[in-house]
Amino acid sequence: MDRRHQPQNPSLNLAPEGPSPESEQGQPVSARVPEDAPAQTSLDAAPKSMEEGHREEPPRLHFDIFTLFPGMFQGPFSESIIKRAQEKGLLRIGIHNIRAYTTDKHHICDDTPYGGGGGMIMKPEPIFRAVETVLTRPPGWVLPPEDAFHHLPPWDPEQPPTLPSDVPIILLTPQGRLFTQAVAEELSRYHRIALICGRYEGVDERVRTRLATDEISIGDYVLSGGELPAMVIVDAVTRLLPGVLGYELSAHQDSHSPGMDGLLEGPQYTRPAVFRGEAVPEILRSGHHGKVARWRREQALLRTLERRPDLLEKARLTQEDLRFLAEHGWRPSRPR
Ligand code: ADE
User: Fold this and answer.
1) What is the atom index within ligand 1 of the atom nearest the CA of 173?
2) 90-104 per-position pLDDT tens digit
3) 254 classed as catalytic
4) Which residues are bridge partners to 66 per DSSP?
5) pLDDT digits (tens, 9 = 90+) for 143-154
């Protein structure tokens, strides 16, 4: 893949106040809001303060999401942990409507495939224009809604700008590498991540070869677009950021997390001690921390053996774990 990202020029200080005062057609910028102006959303207050020229503490992680359906993100990103992470200033999300970066009368983002066949393919230009415009500006920049379509910052399709080399540009596609907890951990080390949500029957191949630096699938099934996968990635990555979860250890004790050594988590209980005739295991109420820890480990081993024996081959198992599993009829296929 042609990965054309050069290290970001540190002197590149593109106007946080927005695009240049001239549109590509040389028209002066007016304050008119086009009737068809789409939502450009940043889900917190950062762009406003940036417009006003103050620099606030940058978030730990900034996502730029490129989509034809910005409205899909409003609910999921305005609740629970994602909402709190934004309120705490740890996370910021810019939602960018790809359609706002079209300049033709009908704002067309898709076209028929060369060579025939059914379905529509997302055109490259609006995607390149959106991603290159946003990523050559500081995190938090969103196209002012009144500038959509008619007053876009200048962009030359033949002159690819230098994009920051430390910002992965991830295309969501069922053909991508599988999203796992390890990939979530890997992404949680970045400070800015771009997610491109494909739609229709596909995306022009040049987006994959000349713009995306990574491709991710959230599973071996086909969704109607990359929006739900983008939400999945934002959620899984955000909960790994230090300070996001109240109880720091909990993200690392989840199933599939490194803290569980590759095992599924065992059963969990809370009050009441007896519900519908089923009592909480006595050992959990014993207050004996050592015994509780061993019981939990054995339950995790049993649950993994029952549900995902494939995971045991790669799990980090102690001699004691191996003895316990052998008593339950499991042996590693390769000696350890
Ligand atoms: N777009 C459609 N299906 C997808 C999947 N499974 N993962 C990521 N993006 C997709």
Assistant:
1) 9
2) 999 999 999 999 999
3) yes
4) 96, 196
5) 999 999 999 999
